Amino acid sequence: MTTAGVGLVHAAVVGEDPEDVVRLCLPTVEAALEAGGEVEIVLDRRGTRAFREVLPDAALRLPAPTDVVPTTLAHRLGATMRATRGVVIGRSCADAPDDDRDLAEAALTLLLADHPLSVFCVYAPGQVDLARRSHPWVLTPDGPVPSPDHRPPNASSPVPAAVLGASVATVPVPDGAALADLRARFAAIVHEAGLAGERADAAVLAAHEAMLLACGADLSPGHPPGDLPPGAHLLDVRRSAGAVIAECRGRPTAPPRASGQDTRLSQLAHLCDHATVHDDADGRTVRVLTGTR
User: Fold this and answer.
1) Which of 179, 156, 185 is nearest to 244 (CA)?
2) Cα–Cα distance for residue pair 225/172, rounded to 1 Å
3) Beta strands in the chain (DSSP E)
4) pTM for the model
5) In CATH, what is the architecture of 9-146?
6) Mean pLDDT by 10-residue block, N- to C-terminus, for the chain (293 residues)?
C-alpha cells in the first residue's frame, strides 16, 4: 500500500454505487475511528445508509449535503477537524458548479496541506478525468496513490483572492517598531469579523508571531524580541466568508534560516486554526488562518 504521509491526503474516490465508495473508504475510516479521530460523511441518504450498515455504532458526523458550502469547506475543516487523522467523505465539490468546484478543491489542497486529515471527494466514473486533475491522490483498493494527472494549484503568494479571500488591508512592517501597528490594524479587522475575547487575542498574537517567522527574526539571547532584520516586509490581511487570514511576507536582505528548523511554526498551531509557510527565492510567506464561524 502506498503511504500518503502524515499531512493532508486529498484524494478522489471514483465510484458509482454507495457500496463501492464504502469499500474504498472503509479501511481509512476504521483506522481513524480506532485512533480516536473524527469521521464526517457528507452524502445523500443512500450513501449515509451504506456507511451506517457497516458501521452501525460508530460516532459518525452526518451533516446534510445542503448544509455544506464547498467554497468555505476548507476553512471549516481547518477550524473544526483537529483530531489526529480525521476523515471527511463527500461529493459536495463534485456536485458544485465548475468555478465553485475548482475553487473548493484548490482551497482544500492549499489550506489544509499540513493538516492530519483525509479528505475523500466522491466523483462519478464519468468524471474520472476531472477527478484526477483536481486531486493529488486517487483512492484505490490498495490505498491512496499519487494522481499522475494532478494539476497543483499555485501555492505561491499572492494566492488568488477567491481561495484565501479578498485583501482588506496591507501594513508595511519595515522594522520592529512597526509591529505595534501590525497588531492594532489586525485587531481591528478581527473585531469587525466578529471575534472577541481570548480567540481574538490569540489571532492577533498569531499574526505577530507569523511576521517574526516570515522575517527570520533572531530570538536568541541578546536580541530584543521586537528586532526585525531590515527588508520590505508586509502584512496582507485577507477576509473570506469563514475566516480571517494574516499573510505575512518577509523579505529580509539576508535569507532566513530554514523554516523547518524554527520552533515558532509549531507554536503557531496553538494560536490559530491553521498555519502554513512557503519559502521561495524572494523570501518567506507565512499565513495564519482563524475561522470566524
Assistant:
1) 185
2) 18
3) 9-14, 39-42, 60-61, 86-90, 117-123, 137-140, 143-146, 166-172, 234-239, 243-250, 274-280, 283-291
4) 0.62
5) 3-Layer(aba) Sandwich (3.40)
6) 65 94 96 92 95 95 89 78 80 89 87 86 95 95 93 59 75 87 94 92 94 79 64 87 86 61 73 80 83 79
